[in-house]
Fold this protein.
Amino acid sequence: MAGNATLAAPGQEAAHREDAVGPRRTPRAVAGDRHRYRFRQVWPLAASPGRVYAVLERAAAYPSWWPQVRAVRADGWGGAARFRSLLPYVLRIDAVPSRWDPVARVLEIRMSGDLVGWARWTVLPGGPGAVLLFEQRVELRKRSLRWAGPLARPLLTANHAWMMRAGRKGLRRVLESGLDDA
C-alpha cells in the first residue's frame, strides 16, 4: 500500500493541523448520535517524524507491537483488520487509503464493516522528536453492540482509550528499541 492519494475534504487538513499542537484530549463520543464516535489523541514521541511515519505506514506490522490489533491483511490498495481490546468482542473492518502522503506525513483510511468512517495519523515535528495526532470519526455498525446503545457508550469509549494507551506504549517500545528499521 503506497502512493499519494489526497482525498481529504476541503479545509479538513488545515483544521486538524491547527489542533495538532493543542493539549492532549481523551477520546470522546459525539453528542446526539448514540452510535457515532469521534476520537482524538496527541502523542509526543522521542523519535524523528520520519521514523514515526515509517513505522505507521507498515500497517501489516501493527499486530507485532499493538496487542489489540489482532490481524491485518493487505491486498493491493486496501486491506482488512481485526481488533479486540479489553471487552469481549472483535471488530472487523475493511480499509481503503484515502490519503497516503509521505511529504505531509499523513495516513488516512476509510473504513467499512463493523465501523464505518475514517481514521487518520498525522506526524508533526515537535520538541526533540515528533508529535503524533490520531483522529477518528466512526459509526458503530456491529449489531451486537448497537442494541445496547447509550448503556454501552461509556464502556466502548473506555475500551477504545485502553486500546490506544496500549498502542502508544507499543509504538514507543518499537521506536526506542531501534527495531523499526527506519
Q: What stands out?
A: The first strand starts at residue 28 and ends at 29.
